[in-house]
Specification:
mainly alpha
């Protein structure tokens, strides 16, 4: 036994009861705060619901025009998609035609280059022939003049 004359089991029992009452009070406060929070949330949700009920008729009236706009947009999207596919086909066709035309132009340029080379060679050959003819003609002229002067000298 202790000095105060209170038995130990009684002190222990008082401590257990004190701890149990403190835990019970804590749990009561926790549950009360949860209930208060839920009640406040319930009131806020009711207030929001009442405010939103004001907008509901206006929003329901907007459904039909917005549906019409959606239909219009969907048809525009479909037409744009169709135009895009048509444009892609046109681009593919033009690229193919461009490749054909590029090959034709390349062939024509090569043919023109060959023709120019041939004409240049022919011109060179003709100049050479012309020079030879001029030299021959000059030789004949000189020969004729020398014969003419020879004949004149004999007279």
């Amino acid at each position: 036994m202790s000095d105060s004359g209170t038995p130990g089991w009684l002190k222990g029992l008082i401590i257990v009861f004190a701890i149990a009452s403190a835990a019970t009070f804590g749990l009561y406060l926790y549950r009360h705060s949860e209930d208060a929070a839920l009640l406040e949330q319930y009131r806020l949700l009711k207030k929001d619901r009442d405010e939103l009920r004001v907008y509901a008729p206006r929003l329901e009236a907007m459904i039909a025009p917005l549906d019409q706009q959606l239909v219009t947009r969907r048809t525009k999207i479909a037409s744009v998609a169709e135009l895009e596919s048509q444009t892609m086909q046109d681009v593919s066709r033009l690229v193919g035609e461009s490749a054909v035309h590029t090959q034709a132009i390349t062939k024509a340029m090569q043919d023109e280059a060959k023709k120019y080379k041939q004409v240049s060679e022919d011109a060179k050959n003709r100049r050479l022939e012309l020079k030879q003819e001029e030299d021959r003609a000059l030789g004949i002229t000189i020969l004729d003049q020398s014969q003419f002067s020879y004949l004149n000298d004999k007279r």
